[in-house]
Write a structure and sequence with these properties.
The chain has about 260 residues and is α+β, with helices and mostly antiparallel strands. The protein folds into two domains: about 110 residues, Substrate Binding Domain Of DNAk, Chain A, domain 1 (Sandwich); about 140 residues, von Willebrand factor, type A domain (Rossmann fold, 3-Layer(aba) Sandwich). Helices cover about 20% and strands about 30% of the residues. The protein is built from five helices and ten strands, in the order ββββββαβαββααβα. It has a four-stranded antiparallel beta sheet. The protein has a four-stranded mixed beta sheet with strand order 9-8-7-10, with helices on both faces. A two-stranded antiparallel sheet has the order 2-3. Helix 4 runs parallel beside helix 5. It is elongated and about 85 Å long.
């Protein structure tokens, strides 16, 4: 809509929320901003941003013939209806007008025209670098790089994180090191720096009670954001404590 003296007001009002059950009908009342405004533009956008310009313009029309009146007095009634075939019908009329304006838009066909915002994801690899992985680590590194490359080629805006863990040969003590989410161009150098025994050297058994802090650090490493979270655990040996395994699965599900 436009304000007095030609100043633009960019404000998006959400009327039918995403994933609303259809058919759906929403009525909304509008009015004028300057005195004696003779027409209004009814414009329809699709999206969830607070500003119109950040959403996708669908269509619109002009409602003419508004009787002269002070700003805020005319009552402009709008009705927005989506039927079972995703046909959006927008109707607008004003008090004291004998006619109304109607717009029909098929939202299904419009979806192909809308630019898709790239998906955003944080991907963390949790990799066992204990001595028992000595014959597999180079293959793991290649697989991780290949996976990351495929994700990027799919157009996903991804950040890549890395954690390696190992168990000290002196006591049942696990150690780990966290590489925070980084740009994809930095990931090859980070994963190339993983070495067998870098943090201890003995075999790791995910599923033992002593591995709970390792998984907790894995969960905590993800930034608190609305990005998709993908965690990949790579280890060649699994503990047989069913209670702990269930606990670890519960931690990951909750996260």
């Amino acid at each position: 809509m436009r304000a007095a003296k030609g100043q633009e007001v960019d404000f998006f009002k959400r009327l039918i929320s995403k994933n609303s059950p259809i058919p759906a009908i929403v009525a909304e009342e509008f009015t004028t901003r300057p005195d004696n405004q003779k027409s209004v533009n009814i414009t329809v956008f699709q999206g969830e941003q607070a500003l119109c310009r950040k959403n996708t313009f669908i269509d619109g029309f002009r409602l003419n013939g508004i009787p002269p009146a002070s700003a805020g007095q005319p009552q402009i009634s709008g009705q927005f209806r989506i039927d079972n075939s995703d046909l959006l019908t927008v109707t607008a009329t004003c008090s004291h007008l004998r006619h109304e304006q109607t717009l029909d838009v098929n939202l299904v066909s419009r979806e192909d025209e809308m630019p898709l915002e790239p998906a955003k994801a944080d991907i963390f690899f949790l990799i066992d670098t204990s001595g028992s992985m000595s014959s597999e680590l180079s293959g793991v590194q290649r697989s991780c790089l290949d996976f990351a490359q495929r994700v990027m080629e799919a157009g996903i805006d991804c950040r890549l994180g890395l954690i390696d863990f190992d168990k000290s040969c002196f006591g049942n003590i696990y150690k780990w090191d966290v590489f925070d989410p980084m740009k994809s161009t930095q990931f090859p150098q980070a994963i190339a720096g993983l070495k067998i025994g870098r943090l201890g050297g003995c075999g790791c058994y995910i599923g033992e009670s002593s591995t709970v802090p390792v998984i907790q650090s894995f969960v905590d490493a993800f930034p608190q954001s609305d990005r998709l979270k993908i965690g990949i655990l790579i280890s060649d040996e699994v503990g047989n404590d069913a209670r702990v395994v269930a606990q670890l699965i519960g931690m990951l599900k909750q996260a």
